[in-house]
Design goal:
- By secondary structure, the chain is mainly α.
- It contains eight helices and no strands.
- Helix 2 packs across helix 6 and helix 3 (62-71) crosses helix 5.
- It is globular and about 60 Å long.
């Protein structure tokens, strides 16, 4: 098996993140997906993971890349390029979405003033869950056929459960799309970014704890 080049990995991360964030914009932000928008989002994530996982690892999420870097599953050389590709994809998807698909639809920003703690908790908990699942199914069970579905279903569960509270981002690239499109005020972005990064980091430590064994302590 050949080793993908850095450019191939960046392109894979950009493409996967682009389609994920574009789907979220059209299906959820514009509301064209209706009540089944979370299923469309999860389906896009799943097929992109299966399509591109063998090239870049299919992170499609800066918080995930940082968590995998802490785990030792993403190199320090790849990390900055992954982050740039993912965030750029979110911005580009947002700009294209607003200019090509929004039409006359008025996009109103989330109102978080009275539910700040709920927003922080929602983004933290489901980013934690996403990172925790990725670490166990994608870094500890090589060759399993279900890792893409497990990761996508975690996002699906989060979107259905707390999408109405925080917007269900769990991903700084998605948050960048939400800011570009006006769905999330720049002044409120910390309520997404801080718990997302914290959730990913805490998940790495929880993963390490759950992987300890009696032999490790002897």
């Amino acid at each position: 098996m050949t080793t993908p080049t850095s450019n191939a990995k960046m392109a894979s991360e950009f493409i996967g993140t682009f389609f994920l964030t574009m789907t979220i914009f059209i299906a959820a932000v514009l509301g064209l997906g209706g009540d089944i928008a979370p299923f469309g989002i999860a389906a896009t994530l799943m097929v992109m993971i299966y399509a591109l996982g063998h090239i870049s690892g299919a992170h499609f999420n800066p918080a995930v890349s940082i968590g995998l870097f802490l785990r030792g599953a993403c190199s320090k050389d790849d990390l900055p390029f992954y982050l740039m590709a993912q965030l750029a994809a979110g911005v580009v998807a947002g700009l294209i979405g607003v200019n090509l698909f929004a039409g006359d639809v008025a996009i109103s920003a989330f109102e978080f003033a009275e539910v700040t703690n709920s927003v922080l908790a929602a983004e933290f908990l489901f980013t934690f869950a996403l990172m925790f699942v990725i670490l166990h199914v994608a870094t500890e069970q090589d060759g399993n056929p279900f890792y893409g579905a497990a990761i996508a279903f975690t996002v699906l569960a989060g979107a259905i459960t707390v999408g109405g509270i925080s917007g269900g981002s769990f991903n700084p690239a998605v948050t960048s799309m939400l800011m570009v499109t006006g769905k999330l005020a720049v002044a409120d972005c910390w309520m997404h970014l801080m718990p997302q990064l914290a959730g990913a980091v805490v998940a790495v430590y929880a993963y390490r704890f759950t992987m300890t064994s009696e032999n490790d302590n002897e």
